[in-house]
Amino acid sequence: MAYSAKIGPSILSSDLSCLGSECVRMMECGADYLHLDVMDGHFVPNLTFGHPMVECLRKSVGQDPFFDMHMMVSRPEQWVKPMAAAGANQYTFHLEATTNPGSLIKDIRESGMKVGLAIKPGTTVEELAPWANQIDMALVMTVEPGFGGQKFMEDMMPKVSWLRSQFPSLDIEVDGGVGPDTIHKCAEAGANMIVSGSAVIGSDDPRSVIALLRTVVAEAIQKRSLDR
């Protein structure tokens, strides 16, 4: 059981006019990492930011924060080197966006980043399984990617449970509609990396929300290790 509870605020939910200070604020409130949503207007019907902004953020916040790049783009191969050069730590691409995951995984590793592999709600977890031993993290989307503020899809939890049972030490991330109301289901299913946007960043007290999310996940991990 090599995995631990980690909470990553989704910075797209923050005030984009002062992103640097928002990132610092989240880290000071106890965030374990930062989740950065890159959308290209093709793979998802929304447009956010690219590697130039990541490079500026890295210079602004220093080397410490771990940048988990959620690449909602139709050509993930294209951005591996630019993102690595910009200071990204993990490159999470969508299985649906590539015809050659193995080659892309290799490229990401060779560029010095960790590898994340994401699946949309309509993609089965069995399609991700062949790559699970080659990646650092699996991301199970709990909303349809592209828009913030959507309702959490509880029917995605069996995917998380199945991954946890098959790959006990894999980092498993959930993203979409996750907050204090839905964290228990995620934790029980076996997720250990928790992306939370508005529930954390929109809160009057982000520190206590982050602490709550982490406590619930850590307790579920401990329970699982005792149950074995």
TrEMBL record:
<keyword id="KW-0408">Iron</keyword>
<feature type="binding site">
    <location>
        <position position="177"/>
    </location>
    <ligand>
        <name>substrate</name>
    </ligand>
</feature>
<dbReference type="InterPro" id="IPR011060">
    <property type="entry name" value="RibuloseP-bd_barrel"/>
</dbReference>
<keyword id="KW-0170">Cobalt</keyword>
<protein>
    <recommendedName>
        <fullName>Ribulose-phosphate 3-epimerase</fullName>
        <ecNumber>5.1.3.1</ecNumber>
    </recommendedName>
</protein>
<feature type="active site" description="Proton acceptor">
    <location>
        <position position="37"/>
    </location>
</feature>
<dbReference type="GO" id="GO:0005975">
    <property type="term" value="P:carbohydrate metabolic process"/>
</dbReference>
<keyword id="KW-0464">Manganese</keyword>
<dbReference type="GO" id="GO:0004750">
    <property type="term" value="F:D-ribulose-phosphate 3-epimerase activity"/>
</dbReference>
<keyword id="KW-0479">Metal-binding</keyword>
<comment type="similarity">
    <text>Belongs to the ribulose-phosphate 3-epimerase family.</text>
</comment>
<feature type="binding site">
    <location>
        <begin position="146"/>
        <end position="149"/>
    </location>
    <ligand>
        <name>substrate</name>
    </ligand>
</feature>
<feature type="binding site">
    <location>
        <position position="10"/>
    </location>
    <ligand>
        <name>substrate</name>
    </ligand>
</feature>
<dbReference type="InterPro" id="IPR026019">
    <property type="entry name" value="Ribul_P_3_epim"/>
</dbReference>
<feature type="binding site">
    <location>
        <position position="175"/>
    </location>
    <ligand>
        <name>a divalent metal cation</name>
    </ligand>
</feature>
<comment type="subunit">
    <text>Homodimer.</text>
</comment>
<comment type="function">
    <text>Catalyzes the reversible epimerization of D-ribulose 5-phosphate to D-xylulose 5-phosphate.</text>
</comment>
<feature type="active site" description="Proton donor">
    <location>
        <position position="175"/>
    </location>
</feature>
<keyword id="KW-0413">Isomerase</keyword>
<feature type="binding site">
    <location>
        <begin position="197"/>
        <end position="198"/>
    </location>
    <ligand>
        <name>substrate</name>
    </ligand>
</feature>
<keyword id="KW-0862">Zinc</keyword>
<keyword id="KW-0119">Carbohydrate metabolism</keyword>
<feature type="binding site">
    <location>
        <position position="35"/>
    </location>
    <ligand>
        <name>a divalent metal cation</name>
    </ligand>
</feature>
<feature type="binding site">
    <location>
        <position position="70"/>
    </location>
    <ligand>
        <name>substrate</name>
    </ligand>
</feature>
<dbReference type="InterPro" id="IPR000056">
    <property type="entry name" value="Ribul_P_3_epim-like"/>
</dbReference>
<dbReference type="GO" id="GO:0006098">
    <property type="term" value="P:pentose-phosphate shunt"/>
</dbReference>
<feature type="binding site">
    <location>
        <position position="70"/>
    </location>
    <ligand>
        <name>a divalent metal cation</name>
    </ligand>
</feature>
<dbReference type="InterPro" id="IPR013785">
    <property type="entry name" value="Aldolase_TIM"/>
</dbReference>
<feature type="binding site">
    <location>
        <position position="37"/>
    </location>
    <ligand>
        <name>a divalent metal cation</name>
    </ligand>
</feature>
<dbReference type="GO" id="GO:0046872">
    <property type="term" value="F:metal ion binding"/>
</dbReference>
<dbReference type="Pfam" id="PF00834">
    <property type="entry name" value="Ribul_P_3_epim"/>
</dbReference>
